[in-house]
Design goal:
The chain is mostly helical and 213 residues long. It has one domain: Up-down Bundle (Four Helix Bundle (Hemerythrin (Met), subunit A)). Helices cover 76% and strands 0% of the residues. It contains 8 helices and no strands. The protein has helices spanning 3-27, 42-68, 75-99, 101-104, 123-139, 142-180, 187-201, 203-212. The longest helix is centred in the last third of the chain and has 39 residues, at 142-180.
Length: 213
């Protein structure tokens, strides 16, 4: 059995078990695997092993497939997707740093609503989803693309599974924040920020756009 086959099997098994575990956890709280179970528990060990395995497999296969199959008419699109994936990955690392270790591992450390959290309630998930979705497209290989898609699903399910946990810990503060900021991408806020930037940096362009309206 080749290393590639081992990675494919490990990735597929991790993806299936994670998705099944997240679904079961939503139906029965006693079987919840996310938000993270107590550190040192069997469920915690199982979740983090599967989750990290899937992330590593997707990264290895995605990058390898991209680098070894460069060419064809779709190359410009694939390169663009790889660039977006890299930028999103850097943004993901920044959001992890801004949130802090405790909150990243689901230890209540205060509700974050400023900075990047004005744009999305889940900047880690939003940037990870963007990074792995575009990596899957850039890879253009059935194994890497399917596993990247499954990882995107896992991140989306994790974000949804966290919400009742956050509501319990932060109550009305989180509910008000939830009503104001979308789960993943705050396009309305982005449009407002862009409009404000144009108005400030280029008054002539802003006046021209207003005239067009």
């Amino acid at each position: 059995m080749s290393i590639e086959q081992i990675l494919e099997i490990a990735g597929a098994a991790s993806a299936l078990l994670l998705i099944a575990g997240l679904v079961i956890g939503q139906l029965n709280g006693e079987w919840r695997i996310w938000p993270a179970p107590p550190v040192g528990s069997l469920k915690s060990f199982g979740f983090w092993t599967l989750f990290r395995t899937l992330n590593v497999v997707v990264l290895i296969l995605g990058i390898e497939r991209f680098l070894t199959t460069l060419g064809g008419d779709a190359l410009p699109l694939r390169i663009a997707c790889a660039a977006v994936s890299l930028i999103s990955g850097i943004a993901y690392a920044y959001t992890l740093w801004s949130l802090g270790r405790k909150a990243t591992y689901c230890q209540a450390s205060g509700l974050a609503t400023g900075g990047v959290y004005r744009w999305t309630r889940n900047p880690q998930y939003a940037t990870a989803i963007a990074a792995f979705a575009t990596l899957g497209i850039a890879a253009a290989a059935w194994d890497a693309t399917l596993l990247a898609g499954s990882l995107v699903i896992v991140y989306a399910m994790m974000a949804r599974a966290e919400e009742p946990w956050l509501e319990t810990r932060y109550g009305r503060s989180y509910l008000d924040y939830k009503a104001e900021v979308p789960r993943f991408f705050n396009l309305r806020h982005a449009a407002a920020e862009l409009s404000a930037f144009v108005m400030t940096k280029s008054p002539s362009l802003a006046k021209h756009l207003q005239t067009k309206r």
